[in-house]
Amino acid sequence: MVKICCIGAGYVGGPTMAVIALKCPDIEVVVVDISSPRIAGWNSERLPIYEPGLDDVVKQCRGRNLSFSTEVHRHVGDADIVFVSVNTPTKTCGLGAGKAADLTYWESAARMIADVSVSDKIVVEKSTVPVKTAEAIEKILAHNGRGFSYQILSNPEFLAEGTAIRDLLSPDRVLIGGRRDTAAGSAAVDLLAGVYARWVPQDRIITTNLWSAELSKLAANAFLAQRISSVNAVSALCEATGADITEVAHSVGKDARIGHRFLSASVGFGGSCFQKDILNLVYICECYGLPEVASYWREVIRINDYQKSRFVNRVVSSMFNTVAGKKVAVLGFAFKKDTGDTRETPAIDVCKGLLGDKAVVSIYDPQVTGEQVARDLAMNKFDWDHPRHLQPLEQLSATDLEKQVAVAADAYEAAKDAHAVCILTEWDEFRGLDYRRMFEGMQKPAFVFDGRNVVDVAKLREIGFVVYSIGKPLDDWLKDMPAVA
């Protein structure tokens, strides 16, 4: 019987281990974390993260062959396979600040594994890490391993939040990188591949060398983000020319070489991976003397930042060039629908832009708490990717923030007496709202700024709204307004 332990009970570690436990009932799976509140959440009826289908999977396995614990050293020491799914934040100071990945938590995990091990182990990179991280981990374990043997594998996750359980149950591919040139390395790859083979077809399990696996994850996220920035760049041109981005994207996506995925224009991409991984890729390219390649990928981030600032500028300029003292309802704070994850959500930058112009912001999201909103709006860039107990709590007492920001119980409460509504997450419920009822409770003229293209623009204009929708032909009201405040 194989025992698996995962260090890190977050968005990756928790769901991944739950599905492994579901599909491999003879394998003991333990998820460990130093955060007592997080582990308590995993052992409760209300899990610490929202993901469709996750609750059912955890309830089926918890207490059988799946457990969650703060006894990190004991369970890591007993395990045969140790997955490491810890934070890899972007550095905020020192060499590579603003681009390079901070591997402090990874290094600490590796040293801890060496300290507590009582047997040989397979150590699996599950966090997204820079190329050649495995080599550094090998050196740490080799110098501190007390005679035990360690095989390092790279097994990056390719999950999309909102569909993570579906992605785990039926993945496009499972990628495992290892030292296939050695007998021990090859055996380790085969052992982990055998775990996934319990439910994943063999032709979807890909094995590569370590460096290819590490780079594949960064490249995959860079390619996806690039598509979003590409369609968002075209959306700006659509507004300038009167073209419709929905029609353009549909026509482009009909080309079988391109396809329709990730061609929805929006206020910008978010989530824990895209920006961080591209910045990491930029830094790696610079370190290897590839400035032109680094510059190419940096532009993907610049277009994303431009799209968010362009949205804020459109809001302010359309409302007589000021939102000072005006209530603005923000519908959606998570970075995408069907998740409560707010990491790098475009809503943070949009709200900060509005608050910077002295707007009064009322926020509604069905899965994001008021506490999380407050933390996100008070934090500096990149601080979100550190464990909660290491985040700068002293910033959270900002009285100005408390005066300017409210969290509403529903969309209608958020919009009551508001001058404008900004839709920043594509939650399905926002498509079916009674916008006539909303209009009647708002200040006039009443604006809707749709950053996700979820509303029927024509119907809202019939009701009386002034409507701006990303990449769509402009409302007559907006045609005479400057695009930049």
Structure description:
Residues 329-457 form the UDP-glucose/GDP-mannose dehydrogenase C-terminal domain. It is an enzyme of class 1 (oxidoreductase). This is UDP-glucose 6-dehydrogenase. The protein is of the alpha/beta class and 485 residues long. Helix content is 43%, strand content 13%. It is built from 19 helices and 14 strands. The protein has helices at 13-23, 36-42, 54-61, 72-78, 104-116, 133-144, 164-169, 183-196, 210-241, 245-253, 274-287, 291-318, 346-356, 370-378, 399-404, 411-415, 435-440, 457-463, 476-479; strands at residues 3-7, 28-32, 66-69, 81-84, 121-125, 150-154, 174-177, 205-208, 327-331, 360-364, 405-407, 420-423, 447-450, 466-469. The strands form three sheets. The chain has a six-stranded parallel β-sheet, sandwiched between helices. Helix 8 links the parallel strand 7 (174-177) and strand 8 (205-208). The longest helix is centred in the middle third of the chain and has 32 residues, at 210-241. The relative contact order is 0.09. The model is unreliable at 393-398 (pLDDT under 50).
Summarize the structure.
The chain starts with a strand and ends in a 6-residue tail after the last helix.
Percent helix range: 40-55%
Number of strands: 14
Major sheet strand order: 3-2-1-4-5-6
Percent of residues in beta strands?
Answer: 5-15%
Radius of gyration: 24 Å
Termini separation: 64 Å
Number of helix segments?
19
> What does the average pLDDT come to?
92
Shape, please? elongated
Determine the structural class based on helices, strands and strand pairing. alpha/beta
What can be said about the biggest beta sheet? 6 strands, parallel
Task: State the low-pLDDT regions, or none.
Answer: 393-398
Catalytic activity: UDP-alpha-D-glucose + 2 NAD(+) + H2O = UDP-alpha-D-glucuronate + 2 NADH + 3 H(+)
Keywords: NAD, Oxidoreductase
EC number: 1.1.1.22
InterPro entries: 6-PGluconate_DH-like_C_sf, NAD(P)-bd_dom_sf, UDP-Glc/GDP-Man, UDP-Glc/GDP-Man_DH_C, UDP-Glc/GDP-Man_DH_C_sf, UDP-Glc/GDP-Man_DH_dimer, UDP-Glc/GDP-Man_DH_N, UDPglc_DH_euk
